[in-house]
């Protein structure tokens, strides 16, 4: 698409705490405690924010130890802007940075909610269950055995 006619701009970085929380809830993801977000954002290994005419409308982050293990998190696009290839644009930016800077032996994971798996598969991600692994999670503050549906992560 011609960049002069493209109203979307991708920038490297992370949003403010307030914008982070808004982007997540606008996209149907769970809200996060402001204090937790304040701790989390500076620990981003690489992040991208998508703007539409100057307004943040999407984001994605990579977290991890910087060497062996990385996780793609907080992938979201405001529903009013979905269906335009913007999730693909965010993933391309994140995976390009991983390929550029992460060691070749690094393990990269993510949690795919619903049809998002089809986007992630285009970037080489595979279902762990087919490799005799299973993804697991626990929400701190919930007693063992209590769970929250994966879409609420």
Topology:
Layout: E1 8-12, H1 17-26, H2 34-40, E2 46-52, E3 55-64, E4 69-77, H3 86-101, E5 107-110, H4 116-121
Parallel strand pairs: 4-5
Antiparallel strand pairs: 1-2, 2-3, 3-4
From the structure above, extract its key features.
153 residues; alpha+beta; 4 helices
Overview of the structural elements:
This protein is 25% helix and 23% strand. It is of the alpha+beta class. Strands 1-2-3-4-5 form a five-stranded mixed sheet, sandwiched between helices. The model has no long low-confidence stretch (mean pLDDT 91).
In short:
Helix content is 25%, strand content 23%. The protein has 153 residues and is α+β, with helices and mostly antiparallel strands.
Q: Largest beta sheet, briefly? A: 5 strands, mixed
The helicity comes to 25-40%
Spatial sequence of strands, sheet with the most strands: 1-2-3-4-5
Query: β content, as a range?
Result: 15-25%
End-to-end distance, in Å?
Answer: 33 Å
- Quaternary structure annotation: single chain
Number of helices: 4
Secondary-structure element order, as H and E? EHHEEEHEH
Label the structural class. Answer: alpha+beta
- Unreliable runs: none
Principal-axis shape? globular
Mean of residue pLDDT values: 91
- Count of individual beta strands: 5
Radius of gyration: 16 Å
């Amino acid at each position: 698409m011609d960049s002069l006619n493209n109203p979307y701009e991708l920038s490297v970085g992370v949003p403010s705490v307030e914008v982070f929380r808004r982007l997540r809830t606008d996209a149907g993801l769970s809200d996060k405690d402001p204090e937790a977000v304040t701790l989390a954002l500076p620990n981003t290994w690489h992040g991208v924010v998508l703007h539409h005419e100057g307004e943040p409308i999407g984001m994605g982050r990579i977290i991890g130890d910087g060497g062996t293990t990385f996780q793609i998190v907080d992938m979201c696009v405001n529903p009013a802007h979905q269906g335009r290839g913007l999730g693909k644009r965010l993933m391309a930016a994140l995976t390009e940075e991983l390929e550029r800077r992460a060691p070749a032996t690094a393990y990269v994971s993510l949690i795919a909610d619903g049809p998002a798996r089809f986007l992630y598969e285009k970037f080489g991600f595979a279902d762990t269950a087919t490799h005799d692994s299973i993804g697991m999670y626990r929400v701190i503050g919930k007693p063992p055995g209590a769970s929250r549906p994966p879409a609420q992560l």
